[in-house]
Amino acid sequence: MKIPATVLFLVTALGLAAIAQTPTPARRPKGTPDPDAGKAINENNATPPERIKVMRDFKIELLYSVPIEQQGSWVALCVDNKNRLIASDQYGYLYRFAPPPPGQPLDPASVQRIAAPIKAANGLLWAFDALWVAVNDYENAENNGLYRVTSAHGDDELDTVEKVRAMEGRGDHAIHAILPGPDGKSIFLVTGDGTTPAEVNRSRVPLHWGEDHLLPRMPDGRGFMRNVLAPGGIIYKISADGKDWEIWCSGFRNVYDAAFNKAGELFTYDADMEYDFNTPWYRPTRICHCVSGAEFGWRNGAGKWAEWYPDNLPPILNVGPGSPTGMIFGYGAKFPAKYQNALFCLDWSWGRLYAVHLRPLGATYSATKEDFLVGTPLPMTDVVINPGDGAMYFTIGGRKVQSGLYRVTYTGHESTDPAGAPTSGGVAFDIRHHLEEYHHPDPGALAVDWPKLGDPDRFIRWAARTGVEHQPMDSWEDKALSETDPVKQLEALLALARCGGVDPFHRKPADPPIDTALRGRLLGALEKFQWSTLNNEERITLVRTLQIVLNRFGRPDDAEVQALLTKFDPCFPAPAYEVNRLLCETLVYLQSPTVASKAVPMIEKATTQEEQMEYARSLRMLKTGWTTPLHTAYFEWFLKAANYRGGASFEKFLEFIRNDAVASLSDSEKTELADVLNKKPEKKSALEAAAAVLAGRTQITPWTVDQLAPPGISLQGRDYATGRKMFAAVGCFTCHRFGNEGGMTGPDLTQAGGRYSAHDLLDNIINPSKEINEQFVPTVITQADGTQVIGMIVNLNADRVSVNTDPTDPNQQVSIDRKKVTRMEPSKVSLMPPGLLNILTKDEVYDLLAYVLSAGDAKNPMFTQH
Known about the structure:
Shape: globular
Radius of gyration: 28 Å
Strand content: 15-25%
Structural class: alpha+beta
Strand order of the largest sheet: 1-23-22-21-20
């Protein structure tokens, strides 16, 4: 096993010799005959069931290895009116077949190509006596759109194609799944951010899109989607005849599928942007509760909205890195009740099928996930429950890789009788649903919506404000400006800023000129709020609303700028990172003379590269308040940051920030700073940079679990600040996410306090290979010449498989020819090295444990999550 150089550095630099004794998988010397040589794992054979781990008491069958030359690579499934399955080749035709009896494979002769001349379906649905098809044609984009396929003679032969609506979109981020509406009178269409918004009859999302960046935006460092603006991915509600289109929700990156629960609530699984790994704007793949009029804040490049921005909604579950594809609830499956009510979500790149369990929480849900099914390689594409036999069927494939059809059945002894409806949402759901009835112009809306603008439930406030924004602005403008309840007024002013101004990126020639009088009234109202009386969430709404006013209405005159500085300069820094992030950005826009003297030390003190990077990004546009020492410290940070690691665009983003910062310098400043500007960074590994805080230590203690976790251990009264510092110093942030910071190549530790005792957490850290999290089990890939590659499979494409062998560098990949692979198997050795705590004192270990287990503890000012 090749240990990454970054890990070796940390081990040797801290004097940790334990890793030298780490067991490694047996390796056959190069050139030694291999009994499996020539038996390439992917030649017309889908991944066998023995390489797939499924939940206990469930059985998985490989029914069919799709002949790729004849039938392509399958990406979509549906069940027709006779409980037959219909599958689509990503680049080719549609195929229909009846599932085989239990225990039997699918007869290849039974797989019949559908006669209808239609190709490249990404979405399939049988509804209203027709097959609905979402075409996403990579080779002929003019074919893209929504279609209906029927039988011309009523003889069960699908041979007639009707184009319901042409749509513009290209590539993997275009037109995707179709699902039935809960009312039995509609369908829903899921589209990614590469789809041009369709013309609609109405929209539940108020149609005043905005990028709403206060400082100049930074598009993706590699140019991906750089010219695509809001609203991003959209989910549409469409009438049964295909003529009436309504936007249901928007603001997604690349949603592929969605699903309704029995209560009629919609959920989707949105993609991350892997190029953004380890930046402050990275957003993991996420389960979203798609309420009426929802906006989820996708924006291009560095412009993605934080989930705590009040002008978008948060996910109900951050999943981690991956490539979301199909999803479905387990309704109709002959599974135990827990899994009948589970939301099943597929991950293409990581080969996972998650079972997500929902529980009502206020007007939305909380969610937890478990690995229901895991395989390598297992590029999962779509999943259905067949009501005919109660089995789950799923496909693997996509991007011209080997495809297969699988069946999952339950073999245990629990009852599989139809489960009752899950727990009702209660009063909060009823309130939200009533408010959603007014997500259109209605004279009675304000009487219903206005009282709920101050509701403590974020989803209720959202539903109320969305209703207000749908009403003529002149009917509520004065009411917003004169509202005496501060919480209601904050929400009302946010609505007024969004409705009364136009984002510069979306301004059209026909738009009215900027209403400077309204800008003055809005700014005056915002300046009246007493900062000391507001909680963190209210402070966030106040400063974010100010940002939207400044962005949509333009920069005010010097007198108003000075009034704003007088109001908000003393508020920075605040105790919470989220508030500081917004304040720093806003004060830089206003060219505060004091923000540099405050923010540069904050960069130096911040323990994570994300927080440092965020302040540095804002300061790049500042031209006032600098001294030579402050400027020197700022540009020295870029030399340090050159050793940070992230996604494929990470280095380009750092380059963009530095280039803008240099462009903000005067000629004389460039002369004064010539030495630091011309200095080249000294390259270090990610863990070496993280461990710099521990430099000079010589005391090494080979800690054991028994030494550190005696019976009755208490972590009460520990120092969370020191714990956070140690979490960073031993490299935990490099691979693990905690709250809204950290890497994504190891398990998310945000909710560790709900999963681990202090003893169990210590055991996992000290003995990382004892029990490896299933989502992060490395794969041992053996090639025909005997060489092995060990790491995480992160991508598949035709005959290539990409593997990350260094978790400290998420952009590092090794490309392997799948035709030369003879074996893939899970590693018994974690990529996380042992001995990481051995450089710490006992008190520092306990502070670190307390910090990790403290998520949600109100006494921990170091952790906030919205």
